[in-house]
Amino acid sequence: MKERGFFICIEGLDGCGKTTQTKLLVKNLEESYDAVYTAEPTRGRIGKFIKDYYLHGERRGSCVVEALLFAADRFEHVEGEVLPALHEGKVVVSDRYVYSSFAYQGAAGLDLEWIRKVNERAIRPDFAVFIDVEPEMVVKRLKPKRSVMEDLETQRKVRDVYLGFVERGELVRLDGNGSKKEVADELLSVVLGFLEKTC
User: Fold this and answer.
1) Which of 21, 56, 63, 165 shows the greatest Cβ crowding within 10 Å of its Cβ?
2) How far apart are CA 110 and CA 116, in angstroms?
């Protein structure tokens, strides 16, 4: 492995199975690599505030405020967790990263270039995957939670932003409609393909 490790992020709509798949990926990678799991929002001060902010079910602020909060949490994430692990040569796998800000705050109406500017201190991942499922599926799964971020129109807009990054080659699209094992096997395959080609 090269001196610096690899930074991989897994993206997707709420309820697509992303967290389960990210944890399975890390477990599977551990057979051959020193892999670690991390996530956004983080467990840090700002990340905890963000989680509380959404758990109450009301948006107490603009999408600009949200974007700045996520960017601040991301800065602490990169400086405190991601870079130290990369410098130790580890494969860092993040459950959500900067593309979530593009997708969710972008879907809320913010200019993507402004979001990119706010996140300019966020290092670019070496490899990024979008687990793609139909918005109707995730809304059905998440209906009991009644989150403001989980209505059908919002999820369609979020998916459209993600697919735009797929078209530009920044994200690799993975079909998330199979069984948990099928998706896990395919995710491991594409990530190993990247790592083996790059190492």
Assistant:
1) 21
2) 11
